[in-house]
Structure formats: structure tokens, C-alpha cells
Design brief:
mainly alpha; about 80% helix; globular; disordered C terminus; EmrE-like; DMT family transporter; membrane; transmembrane; EamA_dom
Length: about 300
């Protein structure tokens, strides 16, 4: 599990790079950015899947394919509602509301009949508190801002469904086949959204394309793809909670890369989120330990 935790931190670092990068891709509409990062990822994964995972692709049963398509649709919904929310409400409100993902993950797990220990709930609440410490509470009463808040909240819900469906598919399907079907679905859905909304898909200058490629490599191939890799072993609760590290991570990366002074709350917020994540990891390990003897007794 230690290797997967390292990969999870690499994934979060990749995701944390997305905000500073997107802030620089001013010539590309938000929906187009989401489309191209997925389309480029599909172009990279397709030859890998066909050359090295063709048998695994063929072995995917109807249920696995449908769940992968559903996960891709939820990922497209996450991008499609969250990115526009950034222009409707404050960045602080949008960030805080979209990072409610682990809370919705815990609720969905409970609805599926999986009871989460009190330590896991406490860790999730503590980690989310860390995000609130960094972003603050900045909810507005204007109709446009409230609509943006609603979109950001919907983005957090969609992300929770995406993580949970990915965890379910990954029980029987390898990372590359699942990720390819998921991203391909996301790409098609976002292409439709771009065409309907009139978002320009090009042409762009060389700098914009370079930034889109960098975004694809870091946030998509390293970020989301490694999330898909580790969710099988670490579980959806740990994975979705760790994604909260993206918020302070982006602030620190912006400080190192762009020379922007990070908010004073970045460091305590990072410590609080890490403490919450540690509690969720402890709870997940304890729960897995309890399930193993139960399986062993049934098999005996």
C-alpha cells in the first residue's frame, strides 16, 4: 500500500498543477480545455491499450463497459459544471463547494450499505475544514453567484460518483482499459457540450497548444489516471479525501512557479488536510483488517 500512497501523492501533485496552468491558458475556453485534455489523453492511451491491453479490452463485460461509460459521463459533468462556475461565483466559493467530493463519497457509500467508522467521518470533516481554512467562506446572495455555487456543488457530487464507479470497475478491470473507455466517453460528451455552447476548439497559437499538452500530461495522465490506478487498493474514501490536497498544493505550486506569495493559511490548511487524510487511511486499514478475518471464517 505504501507504493500506492506515493502514487496518490504524485496524482495530487499533477492535479494541483491544473489550476496554475488553466489560469495561463487564457486563449482557450474552459470547456475546450476540458475537451482537449481528455482527447489528448485518449490519443496517448489508445495505442498503449491496443498494443498491450487488447485482451483486457476484449474481456471487459457489458457491466464493466457500462459502468466505465457512466464514470466518463460523470467526469464530463464534473468538468462541464465546475469550470463555468468559476466565472459565476468567487473562486473561493467554487473551490470549497467542488471539494465536497469526499463528503458525497461517504454518503453514497452509506447509501450502498457500507457503514463508515466514526474515525473516517471525522477525518473527512477535518480534511474539508482544511479547505475551508484556505478558501474561506464567501457565499454570495446574488442569483448569478448562487447559480455558480450550485454548479460547483454539482461538480463535487459528480466527482464522487466518478470515483465510486471507478473503484467498482477497477475491482475486475485493469487501469488502462478502464481509463481509455472512461476518457473516451468524457471526450465525446465534452465535444458535444463545446459544439452546443459554441466554445471554440481552435485554432490556437503554439503557446496555448504547449500548455494544453502540459496540462494533459500532468493533470490528466498523471493526475486522474493515477487516481484510477490507486483507487482499487486505497479505496474511494481515501482517494477522494486525498484530492483535497489539490487546493493547498495549487497555492504552493503557484508560489514556487509563478512567484505568487501563498496565502498565510496555506501551511496550516495543508497540515489540517493531511491530519484528516491520515485518519481516513487509519479507518480504511482498520476496516480492511476486520473484513479479512470475516472472509477467512466464511471460507473455513
Amino acid at each position: 500500500m505504501s507504493l500506492d500512497l506515493v502514487l496518490l501523492l504524485v496524482a495530487v501533485a499533477g492535479l494541483a498543477l491544473s489550476a496554475p496552468l488553466i489560469a495561463h491558458i487564457t486563449a482557450v475556453p474552459a470547456l475546450a480545455i476540458a475537451f482537449w485534455r481528455n482527447a489528448m489523453a485518449v490519443s496517448v492511451l489508445t495505442p498503449v491499450a491496443l498494443l498491450r491491453h487488447r485482451a483486457a479490452l476484449r474481456a471487459m463485460n457489458r457491466r464493466a463497459v457500462l459502468l466505465s461509460v457512466a464514470a466518463g459521463a460523470l467526469l464530463a459533468l464534473h468538468f462541464g459544471v465546475w469550470l463555468p462556475s468559476l466565472g459565476m461565483t468567487s473562486v473561493a466559493s467554487s473551490t470549497a463547494l467542488v471539494t465536497t467530493t469526499p463528503i458525497w463519497t461517504m454518503i453514497l457509500l452509506r447509501l450502498r450499505g457500507r457503514r463508515q467508522p466514526a474515525v473516517a467521518w471525522a477525518g473527512t470533516a477535518l480534511a474539508f475544514l482544511g479547505v475551508v481554512i484556505l478558501t474561506g467562506v464567501d457565499l454570495s446572495s446574488s442569483p448569478r453567484a448562487l447559480a455558480g455555487d450550485g454548479l460547483a456543488l454539482a461538480g463535487g457530487m459528480a466527482a464522487a460518483g466518478y470515483v465510486l464507479l471507478g473503484a467498482e470497475v477497477r475491482r475486475t478491470v485493469a487501469t488502462v482499459p478502464y481509463t481509455l473507455v472512461c476518457y473516451a466517453t468524457t471526450t465525446v460528451a465534452l465535444l458535444a457540450a463545446c459544439l452546443i455552447s459554441g466554445a471554440s476548439l481552435g485554432p490556437y497559437d503554439g503557446g496555448a497548444w504547449t500548455q494544453l499538452v502540459l496540462l494533459t500530461v500532468t493533470a490528466q495522465l498523471l493526475g486522474h489516471s493515477l487516481i484510477n490506478r490507486v483507487v482499487k487498493s486505497l479505496g474511494p474514501s481515501v482517494t477522494s479525501t486525498a484530492i483535497l490536497l489539490e487546493t493547498p498544493g495549487a497555492a504552493l505550486i503557484a508560489a514556487l512557479w509563478l512567484g505568487q506569495l501563498p496565502p498565510a493559511a496555506s501551511y496550516p490548511a495543508l497540515a489540517v488536510i493531511l491530519a484528516g487524510l491520515a485518519l481516513v487511511i487509519v479507518a480504511e486499514r482498520a476496516e480492511r483488517g476486520e473484513r479479512r478475518p470475516a472472509r477467512a471464517s466464511r471460507s473455513a
